[in-house]
Write a structure and sequence with these properties.
The protein is of the alpha+beta class. The protein has helices at residues 15-31, 45-52, 70-78, 87-94, 96-105, 118-123, 204-208, 223-239, 275-282, 287-297, and strands spanning 3-9, 35-41, 56-59, 113-117, 131-135, 145-147, 168-173, 178-185, 188-196, 214-216, 245-253, 258-265. It is an enzyme of class 6 (ligase).
Length: 302
């Protein structure tokens, strides 16, 4: 029987989501017959893992340190097989501008963007409104700011005391339209989901609060867009060098028949409202089987 350490929690802005993901995966791993133990990650994670003595690490961390290559490097040093993507793929995918450069090389359509500091973003419009300000290395829509055409000037929120998402930002062309997402499992894209919400945009509460969003799977979009999204998600997964499970997010502008890839999440959520388990279930894979697949797919460089 494999001993599995489910690592979750940590100290990033996405701790709450990670605890929920980790709790769900730990329960499923035990139900699937694994000798599973949970680890709420601290900065003494190497000792925590050594004490747990696992054969495999199921990584349930989200956000900085957990999905940007940092903890993956620790797993590699410890020489313990772990789930999801490796060091390089994780680091590139977490950086929104670097990942977009990879997408462009792979022939995928991306939104125009420019790198800005907080001071630059607040001083003058870096792009013609409407546009979106995003931290380069955050997930779960933390720190996303919309700047509309009717705004009197650039956003001042980025300079406020409440801002805690770093100084490296990007201003990105706003793509109108519908929110689509595709999960990839190994070398297989699962389905296309459309996400709708009554909130201003698909923010943290829309993603994780009960009733915050509505998921339509399969998405009711033209067949050629379904196929294009499935192919683009797999192409992004492969171009970034990912393994295991990923989820790529898109905007579909119906007026221009344009499908734009926004980002690829190498540590997608596994909470009760998460999209990957939902797509897996749609294809006939229950959550317990999904978690088992991730455990058996785990690897590291030897």
């Amino acid at each position: 029987m494999k001993r599995v350490a489910v690592v979750y929690g940590g100290w990033s802005s996405e701790r709450e989501v990670s605890v929920s993901s980790g709790t769900q995966m730990l329960r499923a791993a035990k139900a699937a017959g694994y000798d599973a133990v949970g680890i709420d990650a601290t900065r003494d994670l190497a000792r925590q893992i050594a004490e747990a003595a696992p054969d495999v690490i199921l990584n349930g961390l989200h956000g900085p340190w957990g999905e940007d290559g940092c903890v993956q490097g620790l797993f590699e040093i410890l020489d313990i097989p772990y789930s999801h993507s490796g060091v390089t793929a994780s680091a590139i995918a977490m950086d929104k501008r670097k990942s977009k450069a990879v997408y462009q090389q792979a022939g995928l359509d991306v939104a125009q963007d420019v790198a800005v500091t907080r001071e630059e973003a607040a001083r003058a419009h870096p792009l013609k409104p409407p546009y979106v300000i995003k931290p380069v290395n955050e997930g779960s829509s933390f720190g996303v700011v919309f700047v509309r055409e009717q705004n009197n000037g650039p956003s001042q929120f980025v300079l406020s005391d409440d801002w805690k998402y770093g100084d490296n930002l990007m201003a990105e062309e706003y793509i109108p339209g519908r929110e689509l997402t595709v999960a990839v499992l190994g070398d297989k894209p699962l389905a296309v989901t459309e996400i709708t919400t009554l909130r201003e945009f698909y923010d943290f509460d829309a993603k994780y609060a009960a009733g915050g969003s509505r998921h339509v799977v399969p998405a009711e979009v033209p067949e050629h867009i379904t196929q294009k999204a499935l192919e683009a998600a797999l192409k992004a997964h492969q171009a970034l060098g990912c393994r295991g499970v990923t989820r790529s997010d898109f905007r579909f502008d119906e007026d221009k028949d344009r499908l734009v890839i926004l980002e690829t999440n190498t540590q997608p959520g596994m909470t009760p409202t998460s999209l990957v388990p939902e797509q897996a279930a749609y294809t006939g894979m229950p959550f317990e089987d999904l978690v088992s697949w991730m455990i058996e797919d785990s690897s590291c460089r030897r």
